[in-house]
Specification:
alpha/beta; Rossmann fold; globular
Length: 490
């Protein structure tokens, strides 16, 4: 493994990186950082969770000249959440050099952003729609930009931002360095690279490096109507410290979060229709541990980097393998173990086969747990807590009361009463979830890709062609007419 001190970065940046807990560079960091420091254009093909933010963030911070009061680096990200998280990580990396970083995204008061821009940030991290808005208002000047980074370019393609990206790049001096990061390389992304990059070096992470080996992956074959009971039993048995449940639609996320709270779990949902203030509030509570389960759509959770997530539950199987890899990448971070479970209805098994083929890893089949097994799981969790309390040995104050109980009751009865009192018995409160239609059956990759192209059509974009319907801005997302069905309404 490559050490950061071997990559030729300054003492101030190295100190900040080590303070963040990084010791050894990941493969994409080890390859990208030296190329970027040499001002080479770079195409990085890598998934979230491989350390790509530091891969482009470290050399970007290194090249910033603090005395120049102008924007010197710009990062374009697909979602608000990713823009915020990238800016937070860059702030930490640049703390030693006191580099000023500013996130720019839709949903935040634009007047406040304009005031912040007047303080001359060195680096801005923004979503395409809001960046273009500032450019049109002339509140952002890009004539001193030396480095441009496109993060998660394939997701920006899926969201219909290609034209915005091209418009932004046209405003930046041609004499610049451009870095592009994408999990996949569809033709429109390749065309952007050819048009705006100069002899780019390609850094590609192999599939086996993209799927984290420390994640145990399982699937459960479950009928749609039984999914929720199976989910709650798994939560009871596994007692995750922090868990993320992925649903296919915004309606699904709202209903799941409400149903989980009804059954006694602390859960909140996150999706594209929430206000920015609400999203930030939910994520803060999840990071602090005041909620145990985060329910999310793919778009809302894209790029989330929350440490301590032990379990990911795919309540609905994703529509493409790339989304699956991004979902399970929320756990198993920094070398820690993680567990990912995917619910599959009998009609969706072809999607499971495609995911396994793409990730080159077979999922282990898990039998859906019974109500009795859920109760046993809760009892085991209570027993573990009791044993930990015994190990801590701070029991003197309680021994008199214990001896008094044992004078009139036998030990097994007292322990059974304690177990009953502390055990959270499985809740069978009836809940009603709107059934989601199963994904269209797919038997081979060609038809799977064809379905994805149709889905792009429904979003108003197919390759490099727009549909004739007018495209309307909605914050940082694009839509073209109504989605084809509710299942596509993310």
């Amino acid at each position: 493994m490559t050490k950061f001190e071997d990559l030729g970065i300054s003492h101030a940046t190295l100190k900040a990186v080590l303070r963040m807990g990084f010791e050894e560079a990941t493969p994409i960091q080890a390859e990208t950082i030296p190329l970027s420091l040499e001002n080479k254009d770079v195409i990085g093909q890598a998934q979230t969770g491989t350390g790509k933010t530091a891969a482009f963030g470290i050399p970007l911070v290194e090249k910033v000249k603090k005395e120049v009061e102008a924007i010197q680096g710009i990062i374009i990200a697909p979602t608000r959440e990713l823009a915020i998280q990238v800016s937070e990580e860059l702030y930490k990396i640049g703390s030693g050099k006191r580099v000023r970083v500013l996130p720019i995204y839709g949903g935040q008061d634009i007047g406040r952003q304009i005031r912040s821009l007047k303080k001359f940030p060195h680096i801005i991290v923004g979503t395409p729609g809001r960046l273009l808005d500032h450019i049109n208002r002339k509140t952002i000047r890009l004539d001193h930009v030396q480095t441009v980074i496109l993060d998660e370019a394939d997701e920006m393609l899926n969201m219909g931002f290609i034209e915005d990206i091209e418009a932004i790049l046209a405003e930046i001096p041609e004499e610049r360095q451009t870095l592009l990061f994408s999990a996949t390389m569809p033709a429109p992304i390749q065309r952007i690279a050819e048009k705006f990059m100069k002899e780019p070096k390609i850094v590609r992470m192999k599939a086996k490096e993209m799927t984290v080996p420390s994640i145990d992956q399982y699937y459960l074959e479950v009928q749609e109507k039984n999914k929720f009971d199976v989910l709650t039993r798994l939560l009871d048995i596994q007692s995750p410290e922090l868990a993320i449940v992925f649903g296919r639609t915004k309606r699904r996320v709202d209903e799941l979060a409400e149903a989980l709270n009804l059954r006694g779990y602390t859960a909140e949902g996150i999706h594209g229709d929430l206000s920015q203030a609400k999203r930030i509030s939910v994520l803060r509570k999840f990071k602090e541990g005041s909620i145990d389960v985060l329910v999310a759509t793919d778009v809302a959770a894209r790029g989330l980097d929350i440490s301590g997530v032990t379990h990911v539950y795919n309540f609905d199987i994703p529509q493409d393998p790339e989304s699956y890899v991004h979902r399970i990448g929320r756990t198993g971070r920094a070398g820690k173990a993680g567990v990912a479970m995917t619910f599959v209805t009998p009609r969706e098994k072809s999607y499971l086969a495609i995911v396994e083929k793409t990730t080159k890893r077979k999922m282990e089949r898990m039998k859906p747990p019974t109500l009795d097994e859920a109760l046993e799981g809760q009892q085991r969790a209570v027993v573990d807590k009791i044993l930990q309390t015994i190990d801590n040995n701070n029991l003197q104050y309680y021994k008199a009361a214990a001896e008094e109980l044992l004078e009139t009751n036998d030990a097994s009865t007292v322990i059974a009463a304690v177990l009953k009192m502390l055990t959270k018995e499985p809740d069978t409160t009836p809940v009603k979830l709107t059934e989601e239609s199963p994904l269209p059956q797919r038997r081979e990759k060609k038809s799977f890709d064809r379905d994805r192209r149709r889905r792009d059509d429904s979003r108003g974009y197919n390759g490099d062609r727009r549909k004739k319907a007018p495209v309307k801005h909605q914050g940082d997302r694009r839509t073209s007419g109504k989605p084809r069905s509710k299942s596509y309404n993310r």
